[in-house]
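Deviation from plan, reported transparently: PBG complex.
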Amino acid sequence: MNNDILKPVFRPRRLRNNTLIRELVKETKIQTSDLIYPMFITENSDKKEEIPSMPNIYRFPINQALEEIQNAKELGIRGVLLFGIPSKKDSIASSAYDDEGVVQKAVREIKKNIRDMLVITDVCCCEYTDHGHCGIVKNNNVSNDDTLDILSKIALSHAKAGADLIAPSDMMDGRVRAIRHVLDNEGFENLPIMAYSAKFSSSFYSPFRDAAQSTPQFGDRKGYQLDYSNSREAIYEAILDMEEGADIIMIKPAMVYMDIIAKIKAISNIPIATYNVSGEYSMVKAAVKNNWINEKSVVLEILTGLKRAGADIIITYHALDAAYFINMEF
Ligand code: PBG
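Because the crystal trials were delayed, the predicted structure below was used instead.
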């Protein structure tokens, strides 16, 4: 070695020398309690059905959902997010607020049979409407204010069934305030709302739409979901939802929206969730299947990255696999 070479003054590599020192200085650690497992509950089958574009993710009849939730619990998962696939759809999503609807029944069964599991329900119309839009359609347009009434009914029926957290994903204006008002009037003032505040119109949802049979039959969702080109507008949505009484703010999708996660985290003092959506999951699974990437290391890198960006809560189809990997690591 040339003795004249200028030696470094600063040596960040000292703290990367071995596993123990790296563990000591690790800034972000993902835990199983950070993860929420989204699940599809179907009324149309008595056997679980794998979703072709989402390997290892199923539509579950209620009894098999209970077994899956028990498995999730044993791995350390503490929350599930339920989506219903009803046997009947109509133009006004009436099966979404039926007390005997698929989600309402599922919530009651989970609450009866499984302790210590947070049951979160998705509040939206698209799985329950024959046209596949997230609200009531009038003159080929989703009518904001007519939809608020339906959303409030859905939220109330979930509350009555025993849901622990209500998650509206429709992107109508004023829905957090409308839902909060109805819940408060009906004695559910302690039931929190996790608002999908910054939900972008995204091509990463397509496997979900196969799974939930919720593809819009005409047009698209650009008239209510955010344009992915906009970050200031996403912050505006988050601020409105906080002012309307949201308890948790969600950013969705996750992986190509980390800048939004970080920006909203910086301006808020309530917990931030992000939804690592179906298309993000399917891409990883497809690459894993081809042996192009290592599932354990990639999944942990993605989830840790989302937490590092500012997400306190991560909703992910990887939840069970990730829990298994996390339990192996530590
Ligand atoms: C709609 C809803 C969607 C997702 C969750 N709730 C899809 C959409 O807006 O079409 C997507 C979730 C995913 O892709 O995993 N209420």
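The longest helix spans residues 144-161. We consider this an acceptable substitute for the interim report.
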